[in-house]
Amino acid sequence: xxxxxxxxxxxxxxxxxxxxxxxxxxxxxxxxxxxxxxxxxxxxxxxxxxxxxxxxxxxxxxxxxxxxxxxxxxxxxxxxxxxxxxxxxxxxxxxxxxxxxxxxxxxxxxxxxxxxxxxxxxxxxxxxxxxxxxxxxxxxxxxxxxxxxxxxxxxxxxxxxxxxxxxxxxxxxxxxxxxxxxxxxxxxxxxxxxxxxxxxxxxxxxxxxxxxxxxxxxxxxxxxxxxxxxxxxxxxxxxxxxxxxxxxxxxxxxxxxxxxxxxxxxxxxxxxxxxxxxxxxxxxxxxxxxxxxxxxxxxxxxxxxxxxxxxxxxxxxxxxxxxxxxxxxxxxxxxxxxxxxxxxxxxxxxxxxxxxxxxxxxxxxxxxxxxxxxxxxxxxxxxxxxxxxxxxxxxxxxxxxxxxxxxxxxxxxxxxxxxxxxxxxxxxxxxxxxxxxxxxxxxxxxxxxxxx
Length: 452
Known about the structure:
single chain, mainly beta, Porin, 16-stranded antiparallel β-barrel, 4 helices, globular
């Protein structure tokens, strides 16, 4: 697995805590870094930034046995990341962006132990010391095709300006598949809303990515009236869950998405249908189990990998109920007898949630939200884990009593001055890693975040 060896029982160094204290101080009293007034005139260049700190703790839970990828009771972790977003207009309709990021810290058990992992701020690569990554480097070209004019606000990875409602958009370079596909205004940003992986994105969406969640590829979007069609092609990792991409399209993923915008009961509604197919060196799970049993060796999918495909599809809904309340839902599935390649160990997933703005209790900058998720795996994947196989994130050494992994997540976000946020988050996970012998697990977190 592409994880650096680390004693995750040891807290992240004092530097992380110092950053958190500074961040909190800025949020509570620092107007100095607050952004100025909004300016929607065309921008020639822009610089944005963000700083986030998450501390997360798992409680004591039943754990009669454990394997290499099991979650540990009474374990905590911290993550810190700071990002600088630099954008420039290149020519008419084109903008280029580079995102430089500094990261430090670990997810619980080095991002292991749960299919619906509880922190979207934790990468699969953790380090005790700060390290630098160029997370994005891409060009976005927009061709106006007519329709109504729209104002575009300046934001991270978006220059202020204007555009037409009917347009073609090409994104090319290094970015995340989920920058373009499977987006949702209520559940998609681990720095601003939910933290659980299976709430932020469809759990069954095994999207192309390195161990940090980014890839190289291209996406084309056609916007016309109430419809949008998207298609993209992206590099897979060289092996499942790797920090290194396989360049040149030797192992790749194709993604398509159809979006429909409409009104339901006079309120905006957005429906997405997303499908993907990955083509790479993957193992058939039943074949891996059979080989292990025949040879008397541990089950290892890497020994039976060959070129094959894994496909999946999911549908998502985004519904505004009122000015203060929004709903979302996702349901999806993917091939169950092929090893998961990039994201997490889920074959079927259904998620739904609600987000409520605090205006009703005179706290318009605050947000309360609640989401529920059920993740499931196929019979073939159950046999694989019961035989001792390891997935991307899970593997308790055996799985004699399998069940659906269920997640309930709630958070309260306090909107402090100067674009700062303090969030309290709690997750209750039943049958962690699909194992009814372990858990349930309670995971509490505090998140401090500022944009500038």
